[in-house]
Amino acid sequence: MRAGSGLPDGTSRYDKDIYFAQLHAGEASVFLKYGYVIEGHAHADIMDFELFVKDEIVSRDPSNSGYGSALFREWQRKTIAHNSLMVDRRNQPNRPNGRMDRFDAQRNLCAVSADDVYPGIGFARTLRLEADRLHDAFEVRPAAGHEGVHEFDWLFHCAGAFSSALAFEPCDPPGVEDGYSLMLETARCDVDGDWEAVWTLADKRVTLRMTGEAGTVVYLFKGYEHRLDKLRWGVLVRRTGREAKYLATYSWQTEG
């Protein structure tokens, strides 16, 4: 790429002033938001990421369908519509700054964190991108002195037809407010061990593999993208405890 062209050069980088990071490897890219500059128009989506593979965004931010639309108010600006995490079935209430704790452009790795996403609860996320996979470690960290057991809902949304060996059973949405009631075709599976799920697109497959933990419930659902007629399959992974750590790998195969 010619220097000064203004076009992306394929180098992983981050901007500490606006809390954005980009990782690039081969034909894959990841965009991560790890903090807020202002509260005004910010969606409740700290630690959200987008995944680009080959020639399309397979897991995208839903953006908005117009500030006056019900879809924007009740879904697109909520945590539940993003690749992030909710505590006790509540939208993320705070808009904290973030920290870049570690960045390695050669390894396409970033480790970020933010305090007080929920009162007394911080988040940390480490992403490492390879040409054919993304490694993801998402931690929920209580502040010193914070007590209590909480319910954690980890989320991932992706384009494509969904398949999995998990034995899902139809169920009601796993919550009522903050977007849960808009989840469609919901089903659940209780699973303690490692598990995986696949999203199949026209010329690629995205596979999510997650390390198991006792007491995990995986919810399958359809959610909206940027329009009412655009739906995609998502998974919500629920765990309960004082803290949590979700270990996941997303891998992909492409044709042509």
Question: Can I get a quick summary?
Answer:
This protein is mainly β.
Question: How many strands in all?
Answer: 19
The secondary structure category is: mainly beta
Q: From N to C, what is the helix and strand string?
A: EEEEEHEEEEEEEEEEEEEE
Q: Could you tell me the mean pLDDT?
A: 92
Low-confidence runs = none
- Number of structural domains: 1
CATH architecture: Distorted Sandwich
The CATH topology corresponds to: Beta-galactosidase, Chain A, domain 5
Helix content, binned percent:
under 10%
Report how far the terminal alpha carbons are from each other. Answer: 24 Å
Q: Which overall shape is indicated by the principal axes computed on the Cα atoms?
A: globular
- SS summary, helix count: 1
Strand order of the largest sheet: 7-8-9-10-19-16-15-12
Strand content: over 45%
How would you characterize the largest beta sheet? 8 strands, antiparallel
Rg, rounded, reads 18 Å
> CATH top level?
Mainly Beta
